[in-house]
Amino acid sequence: MEKKFMKITISLLVIIASLSACYPGNKFQRDSIAGIIGTKVICKEPGRYIGWPTITRTKYNELLIVFSGNRDAHICPYGITQMVRSHDNGITWSAPVTINNTPLDDRDAGILETKSGTLLVSWFTSLAFDRPDQYKKHPDWLRHSEKLSEDIKKQWLGNWTRRSTDNGKTWEEPVRQIASAPHGPIELHDNRLLYVGIGTINDKKSIAIEESKDDGKTWNLISTIPNPSELLVQNLWEPHALEVSNDTLIALVRYNSTDKADGYLHQSESYDGGKTWSILHQTPIFGFPAHLLKLKNGNILAVYGVRKEPYSERACLSKDGGKTWDIENEILLSQSRTGDLGYPSSVELEDGTILTVYYQIDQPGEKACLMGTRWRLK
């Protein structure tokens, strides 16, 4: 009986090992070019939902993360823009403070520290909750909506940035933008700010390029990114751009095909500082949306969420300025139980490690929280 039990156990182990070798996520462990140091919760609001964070590292080596917090769910009326801080490279974090609390749903927060020391936060407001099917499930949402006059909706619905010149102690009045993207504007070598986002131009959805020459006080539309005829513009979302070298930029754009089969990031390039852009083309990276970062060694890092099994946060490198992506050595940063995850962004710390932050569910039965993975390239 004992020998028979041992044979069955060995057979089961062989089967499990065989299945493991075939499991799509297994390649990350076998071929990984990175080492995961640890994953931890950065901010959890009990009973509330957190989403869509962006991290930045300031010139004083402070880490700042902004996100949409105090939410009921992925869609709800109550989202606000919040920020947490770390003075010890992400070991400990402050309690969240509120930056924006408009009458509408404040979503998708981005943050940038400009060379002048100005903090620039971006976000957009939404009325996605304003639907009869939502009110049947959430009567309190209807009571909230009834307080929103048409004038209030007209005043606050849109895309926004706002500045702080005292490290976030106070914030200037919001500035309306044409476009929006989860991780906000970037700063170029010539001190211009560039915002690549999704907006409406002449009543048509477009990938808009806005420019600021006065540290984010005012903005002008300077360009759009063209898309090939086979890509439906309504399926394009949530770009992020990076200056690879002087006047050379790349942008990655989320693409949601109608049948959900095509979730590959698409890319465009600019060689004149964002004035003109190449037609979008597909990359080998499946996931969305992306955040781009140029590492100290010159490599380009893209991080993104994958909402198909295995649900996860992942990373991919380019060693040639975005011309090609090393998808064969895709890096698994963190796995999740559900597909309600993602929007990662990264900073490189002084010791060469990388901190990538994102939102996902920590424990079963909880709502999404703010999490971070610290890791290093081998």
How does this model look, in words?
The protein is 12% helix and 46% strand. With 378 residues, the chain is mostly beta strands. It has one domain (32-377): Neuraminidase (6 Propeller), CATH 2.120.10. The strands form six sheets. Strands 10, 11, 12, 13 and 14 form a five-stranded antiparallel beta sheet that branches. The protein has a four-stranded antiparallel beta sheet with strand order 1-25-24-23, with no helix packed on it. A four-stranded antiparallel beta sheet has the order 2-3-4-5, with no helix packed on it. The protein is globular, with a radius of gyration of 21 Å.
Q: Tell me the Rg in angstroms.
A: 21 Å
User: How would a textbook summarize the main sheet?
Assistant: 5 strands, antiparallel
Structural domain count: 1
- The structural class is mainly beta
- CATH topology, anyone? Neuraminidase
List keywords for this structure.
378 residues, mainly beta, Neuraminidase, 5-stranded antiparallel sheet, 4-stranded antiparallel sheet, disordered N terminus
Short description:
The protein is mostly beta strands and 378 residues long.
List the helices and strands and how they pair.
Blueprint: H1 2-22, H2 26-31, E1 34-43, E2 49-57, E3 63-71, E4 80-86, E5 97-100, E6 105-113, E7 119-126, H3 132-137, H4 139-145, H5 150-156, E8 159-164, E9 175-177, E10 179-180, E11 186-187, E12 193-201, E13 204-212, E14 220-224, E15 236-245, E16 248-255, E17 264-270, E18 281-286, E19 288-294, E20 300-306, E21 312-318, E22 331-335, E23 342-348, E24 354-360, E25 369-377
Antiparallel strand pairs: 1-25, 2-3, 3-4, 4-5, 6-7, 7-8, 8-9, 10-12, 11-12, 12-13, 13-14, 15-16, 16-17, 17-18, 19-20, 20-21, 21-22, 23-24, 24-25
